[in-house]
Design goal:
91 residues; alpha/beta; single chain; four-stranded mixed beta sheet
Length: 91
């Protein structure tokens, strides 16, 4: 299952497709202080990325996937200043 949703924390697992976007957005809307772990995510549909950018949850764990860590995580952290990608080069 690509989404492991709890009260205020979520883990995105494997490939998050367009089919999960509505459920993710609904959870982000309902959670009081949402935290999202990307450590087990390998692919993020652009709709899911847009939901994360809109709701700005705290990113509690950085992705291990090189592309997500290098290209997506900085976008998600731009407004929140959370979950650094250790070992990456500074911008």
């Amino acid at each position: 299952m690509p989404l492991e949703l709890h009260d205020d924390s979520a883990t995105l697992v494997g490939v998050v497709t367009v089919d999960e976007v509505e459920q993710l957005a609904g959870w982000l809307r309902a959670a009081k202080r949402p935290r999202v772990s990307l450590s087990r995510c390998n692919h993020l549909h652009t709709g899911a990325l847009q939901a994360l950018l809109l709701f700005k949850p705290k990113i509690s764990a950085a992705p291990k996937d090189a592309f997500l860590a290098a290209q997506v995580l900085p976008l998600l952290n731009a407004g929140s200043g959370t979950a650094s990608n250790k070992g990456s080069e500074p911008p």
